[in-house]
UniProtKB/TrEMBL annotation:
UniProt-listed Pfam families: adh_short
Organism: Salinisphaera orenii MK-B5
Protein name per Swiss-Prot or TrEMBL: Short-chain dehydrogenase
InterPro entries documented for this protein: NAD(P)-bd_dom_sf (IPR036291), SDR_fam (IPR002347)
Domain of life according to the entry: Bacteria
Amino acid sequence: MSPPVCAIPGAGPGNGRALARRFAAAGYRVALIARRDETVAASAEGLGAAHGYVCDVTDGAAVEATFKAIAAELGPVETLLYNAGNAVFGSVDEVEAADLEAAWRTNTLGLFHCTRAVLPGMRAAGAGHIVVSGATASRKGGARFAGFAQAKAAQYSLAQSLARQLGPEGIHVAIAIIDGVVATPRTREMMPDRPDTFFLDADAIAESVYQITRQPPSAWTFEFDLRPFGERW
């Protein structure tokens, strides 16, 4: 039997690379998807089961071609981990209309394109997993989240619609509400005075996502929150 295939749009530092490591360790062939060659190469380093693909998830034709290549080279995608994101933070006075559109295109339209691309293989198998990296902003819009919150709220609604439609077909759709700052070299540099307990650990997030894909259909989770114990919620 061939190893299962996991595709990760948004395979950059932090969550993307941690997800790649966790699913590769579980025996998956991992398709790493990002807009830049250097991002894909960095994420694939040290992962023998990983294969890189350069793709802009907002481009429907590019997504279709990329997932056809993944299916031909690795096999049909069993698990889609949608981690692609984009945001410009600011109030309604500070962000531009183009910022809102760009955030929506990456967070929501990209999820739509990637889901459409993996559905034929999942439907043929009668099973599959789609897990989305969401955010607290999808549930409450802060004053300086005008550009980000609307995109994540739209993404959440799309994921919920997909879960309700695809669940009866054996395809599990879930969304991780990531509440807090993920520890990466960049965020650590930006917040040097914050203790370790302030940050979310990307490997811990990846472990939670992996366990969600192990759930039996009789007890599927749609929405799950991940936050450090000190995060105010």
